[in-house]
Design brief:
single chain, about 30% strand, about 150 residues, alpha+beta, 3 helices, two-stranded antiparallel ribbon, about 25% helix
Amino acid sequence: MPHDHAPHPHGPHGHVHHPHDHNQPGAADHLHSHVQAEDAAADLQVLAAQFVDGFLQAKDKTSYLRLAGVPFERPGTAGAKALKLVDVELKTEWQVGTASPSFGSRELSYLPFPGEMVRARTNMALVYVSMDERSVLDLRDVLATRKAEVER
């Protein structure tokens, strides 16, 4: 499944810079896994896709959102008045190619995809309103916050 990548730093051999070497003696005392930003983004995109699929299939959309822990109220920017969840927006985008900076040039390197590589991405947004304010919250932000809370 295609997903968006955030830029990430690479060292001279294409590896993400890491301050210690796991292949040296003593590395056994330092065993842990490193989730790179692109892997985290891919995980989040999979979670979002599964959430959207579940929402589309749910007979009772409100109950689905409640069971998933989606807040039906949240503070506004002033904090005094609560914003109320009124809409769930679904937007489907079709990635038909990729563009990236070219080496040594201000031009983009563009690669259109052949038909079988074109993929759809459906994103969800939660729309909250009050008498004074409208706020749109991307599902990926909600899921990233929830995931961080669970991992603590």
